[in-house]
TrEMBL record, chain A:
Keywords: Membrane, Transmembrane, Transmembrane helix. The chain crosses the membrane at residues 12-37, 44-63, 83-105. This is Transmembrane protein. It comes from Ilyomonas limi.
UniProtKB/TrEMBL annotation, chain B:
Its cofactor is Ca(2+). Binds 1 Ca(2+) ion per dimer. It holds the Pfam family Penicil_amidase. This is Penicillin acylase family protein. The keyword Transport does not apply. GO terms for biological process: antibiotic biosynthetic process. One of its GO terms (molecular function) is hydrolase activity, acting on carbon-nitrogen (but not peptide) bonds, in linear amides. PANTHER family: ACYL-HOMOSERINE LACTONE ACYLASE QUIP, PEPTIDASE S45 PENICILLIN AMIDASE. Keywords: Calcium, Hydrolase, Metal-binding, Zymogen. InterPro entries: Ntn_hydrolases_N, Pen/GL7ACA/AHL_acylase, Penicillin_amidase_A-knob, Penicillin_amidase_dom1, Penicillin_amidase_N_B-knob, S45. Ca(2+) binds at E218, D363, D366. CDD domains: Ntn_PGA_like. The active site is at S291 (nucleophile).
Length: 115, 820
């Protein structure tokens, strides 16, 4: 339950913060959520990771599908993805997830004590 | 708190953020900021437009006076309905920015020598700093500043441009980072406010593109290298088969100016083959920049109304140079293509008439050798005394590096483009100032503003009178039945070959002796032959009292006139075929020469096979014609065989010999002197060289056939390139016919950038297409949706539509503009 709550809050704040702050500001949400909803480090990482993996991955799909992959196919040629929009979506999701997970992991170590 | 893991994780997290927030070097270029670029909230995903997107919006601005409605039709072409002129231009500026902002800005960065600011001093093998220095030293910013003064002193045009600029800025101000066009995100910079100066810079860029071609240094080298006889054969003035725009035999009025060469010209200027030349390699615009336009009178058409056609040949880019638009106010309706970056329709038609342009190609850019007292360049010798120099400081900002500063000496001639501080080290340690007609302040934009409103022939004559540089051939046709053409521009009154070579600058003897008076730019109105036309050939025959230096294409004009003379009962369909006509009249004229000089018995079986393909070619450079590939390669090879031996004895840059020069040389002189290979003891004949040239191309031709790309369309490999040259954003490998010397001038990344046909019947019957799309966003289906139709010669109907034509069903959006 804690895991799900952490995940949801991370995704929620991770969406809103970059509307006002730089693109990377979602890590602040990931960090703070991990501080206040304390979990074992690996669980905190996973919650942070999956939150942004889903947020960025789904958001990318939501923008990409109505575009019929016109732009993602081109960008996947400019970046070394051999024109695969799917590889680009996955990479996007993983980068978001990785940053978020690391921030959450950092947050989990801030709080002392057992879980 | 678990201190050690906390700090380790914190450092890794911050390091990752930094890594994804900076541009990483890859080879000689840089990645975007990957985290920003990939974030669906800020990055490129935001540019992935819903393919069924509607563009409805209500724009409010304090600058607007009335109410404007814009309907975007099914091709995203805006139809603007404004209460007044200023609001119409505001809307046009807004729409240009909305669909083409990056391109508009990028073009002015190029024109103003600012590419290093966004690209860095070099990237992907391109030296942007060198390009910037070139444009600054050529005086582009100086020229635009001079034009801006003229523009701002013309109240009506200034009002139009102010409104346009306000419209552009209204859009820019509405943007947040996530809405920036894709290229800003790729290159990591932000749009800056638009200014009237940027429009002036853009128009000067067109002046460079169309009136910046010269080979003065190369020609000087050639003059020093060849004898006068040889030089005149290699670089003749005029052409034998020429059909000038104003037909041969036209009597010219006595000239108002009689330009005379200086008394010492024979010894000092026309001194062939005797001195050291100038090793330099300047940047030159594409010499094939040209166009076709023509108008046929009602006497030759099926409908009895004139038809006007125009296809300007320019670099084919995405986003396209052109943006289609209709502008309607209570005073006028106009439809056509506009330049993102400038108000008005540039080529198009209104309720009364139509017009189109081709390039005049006259040489209006010369160099003078300046003699400075010393290397500080503070004083130079002119008309018998030391004159003080002024300096223009040009600061070039460079991304990630300190500014580069160019202190350019300004003389009576113009900026000293080449000095000790710039470019290739000159072995001769001399200074060269550039004199270019585009340096003069001028207001070409006013011409288009007036043409958009022109009601009759007199309005056309008045409108084009404002046009100075780049000189253009303006074709005109009206519903009243008039057709006309005139080469308009500010052309220096030159004596023969003045400015073809570098000139002496220590006194005014070599100066331009005035500007050809406007009434000596002959206007052809309603000729008996029933048509007017131009295709970048000489405007007049060489009996014209002024020297028409420049580089002229002859064959397109020749075939165009031949076809137009033969045609009767012309329909719009016929004109579409003519614009897409792939017949190669140059190849037709060359064929007898090649066949006469080929001895088939000396060919092996492979050579014979390809020779037979050439022989059976129908002279039409269609996409599926292998004969066209063989001919073009063979002719290039023959040019090499003929001239390389003579030219390779110098390391200096030399001018190119025209195709027509070789062909006409061979047609009238069977013992063409350049046939002899001067590096061999024996004397080669034309036949030897023709055979040698053919045998030499066999590896290329065979290789092409093995790769299934001998057919002309694949062999020439044409395409439409993104302005940054990024292949993924380009439409490459377009399999289509056409080429150099051909009416359908599509060759590599160059060709008909807009095809337009306007039949001036009571209800205008117009068609057009350009190789691109209305949206500059590579993430839009409208980015390049017209390219395929363009390549196959299809057209779309162009219509000035009434407002009530539009509904939600037949539009992609409705944008309103109101006062806030």
């Amino acid at each position: 339950m804690k895991f799900i709550v952490a995940l949801l809050f991370t995704a929620l704040f991770g969406y809103f913060l970059p509307l006002f702050l730089p693109w990377w500001s979602f890590v602040i949400a990931s960090f703070i959520v991990a501080v206040f909803i304390h979990q074992k480090p690996w669980k905190a990482f996973l919650a942070g990771f999956i939150a942004l993996l889903l947020l960025w991955g789904i958001y990318a799909v939501v923008l990409d599908n109505p575009n019929q992959h016109i732009l993602s196919t081109k960008v996947a040629q400019i970046l070394p993805f051999n024109g695969s929009y799917m590889a680009l979506i996955i990479t996007t999701a993983i980068i978001g997830g990785l940053l978020s997970g690391m921030a959450a992991l950092t947050g989990s170590y801030l709080k002392e004590g057992k879980v | 708190m678990r201190v050690v893991p906390f700090f380790i994780c914190a450092v890794i997290t911050i390091a990752l953020i930094v890594l994804f927030n900076i541009q990483l070097p890859v080879g000689s270029s840089k990645t975007p900021r990957l985290g920003f670029f990939l974030s669906p909230q800020t990055g490129f995903w935001q540019n992935a437009e819903d393919v069924s997107k509607r563009y409805d919006a209500n724009i409010q601005s304090a600058g607007l006076r009335g109410y404007t409605e814009v309907y975007l039709d099914s091709n995203l072409i805006p139809h603007i309905y404004a209460d007044n002129d200023a609001d119409a231009y505001f809307a046009q500026g807004y729409l240009h920015a909305k669909f083409r902002l990056w391109q508009m800005e990028f073009q002015t960065y190029a024109a103003g020598g600012r590419l290093s600011e966004i690209m860095g001093d070099s990237a992907s093998g391109k030296n942007f700093l060198a390009i910037d220095k070139f444009f600054r030293r050529m005086g582009m910013v100086y020229a635009a500043e001079n034009s801006l003064k003229v523009i701002e002193s013309d109240p009506s045009y200034k009002a139009a441009l102010d409104a346009y600029t306000a419209g552009v800025n209204s859009y820019i101000n509405s943007l947040s980072e996530k809405n920036y066009p894709l290229e800003y995100k790729l290159l990591n910079y932000a749009p800056e406010p638009w200014t009237n100066m940027k429009t002036a810079l853009f128009l000067k860029f067109m002046a460079y593109d169309l009136a910046g071609y010269e080979q003065d240094f190369e020609m000087t080298n050639a003059r020093n290298y060849f004898t006068q006889l040889q030089f005149n054969k290699l670089f003749p003035y005029g052409q034998d088969s020429l059909e000038p725009i104003i037909p041969k035999g036209t009597a010219f009025a006595p000239p108002a100016i009689t330009p005379k060469p200086p008394a010492d010209a024979d010894s000092l200027y026309f001194h062939f083959n005797d001195s050291v030349g100038v090793p330099l390699k300047p940047i030159v615009p594409n010499k094939n920049n040209g166009s076709n336009n023509w108008a046929v009178a009602g006497s030759k058409t099926a409908s009895g109304s004139p038809i006007l056609c125009n296809d300007p040949h320019l670099g084919l880019n995405l986003p396209s140079l052109w943006f289609e638009v209709q502008i309607s106010t209570p005073e006028y309706n106009v439809y056509g293509v506009s330049f993102p970056g400038s108000p008005s329709v540039i080529i198009g038609f209104n309720d009364s008439c139509a017009w189109g342009v081709t390039n005049a190609s006259r040489d209006v850019k010369d160099y003078y050798e300046v003699h400075f007292k010393d290397s500080t360049m503070r004083e130079y010798w002119y008309n018998g005394k030391w004159q003080p120099t002024t300096f223009r400081k040009e600061v070039i900002k460079i991304k990630g590096k300190p500014d580069a500063i160019e202190n350019i000496a300004m003389t009576v001639w113009g900026p000293v483009m080449y000095d000790h501080s710039y470019g290739d080290k000159m072995h001769d340690n001399k200074y060269y100032a550039i004199k270019w007609s585009a340096h003069a302040g001028s207001n070409e934009g006013k011409t288009f503003m007036l043409l958009d409103r022109a009601k009759n022939y007199n309005d056309y004559v008045n409108a084009i009178s404002f046009f100075q540089t780049p000189g253009q051939n303006f074709a005109f046709a009206s519903k009243k039945g008039n057709i006309a053409i005139s080469q308009q521009g500010a052309f220096p009154a030159k004596w023969k070959r003045q400015g073809q070579f570098i000139m002496e600058g220590n006194n005014d003897e070599y100066a331009w002796q005035g500007t050809v008076p406007r009434n000596e730019n002959v206007i052809m109105l309603n000729p008996a032959r029933g048509f007017v036309s131009s295709a970048n050939q000489y405007p007049y025959d060489t009996s014209y009292p002024y020297y028409m230096g420049g580089s002229y294409e002859m064959y397109r004009g020749f075939i165009l006139n031949r076809r137009l003379r033969a045609m009767q009962n012309i329909t719009v369909d016929d004109m579409m075929h003519l614009q897409n006509y792939n017949y190669n009249v140059f190849a037709e004229m060359a064929r007898p020469v090649l066949l006469k000089n080929m001895d088939e018995t000396k060919l092996n079986s492979i050579e014979k096979k390809y020779f037979d393909i050439y022989k059976s070619w129908n002279l039409s450079s269609d996409a599926d014609a292998p004969g066209a590939s063989i001919f073009v390669t063979w002719w290039d090879s023959l040019m090499q065989c003929m001239y390389r031996d003579e030219f390779s004895r110098t390391t200096l840059p030399m001018p190119n010999v025209e195709h027509s020069t070789l062909l006409e040389g061979l047609l009238k002189d069977t013992a063409y002197e350049f046939a002899d290979d001067i590096t061999t003891p024996q004397k080669e004949t034309v036949s030897d060289e023709v055979m040698k040239a053919f045998k030499k191309i066999m590896p290329v031709i065979q290789h092409a056939e093995e790769k299934d790309s001998l057919a002309w369309g694949k062999f020439k490999d044409g395409g439409v390139k993104h302005l940054l040259g990024i292949p993924a954003l380009s439409d490459l490998h377009i399999n289509a016919g056409g080429g150099v010397h051909i009416l359908n001038a599509f060759y590599k990344d160059h060709g008909p950038s807009w095809r337009m046909i306007v039949e001036l019947t009571d209800e205008t019957n117009a068609y057009g297409i350009y190789p691109g799309g209305q949206s500059g966003n590579p993430g839009s289906p409208y980015y390049d949706n017209m390219v395929d139709d363009w390549a196959t010669g299809k057209y779309r109907r162009l219509q000035i539509l009434p407002k009530n034509h539009f509904s939600t069903q037949n539009t992609k959006g409705k944008i309103t503009f109101t006062h806030s």
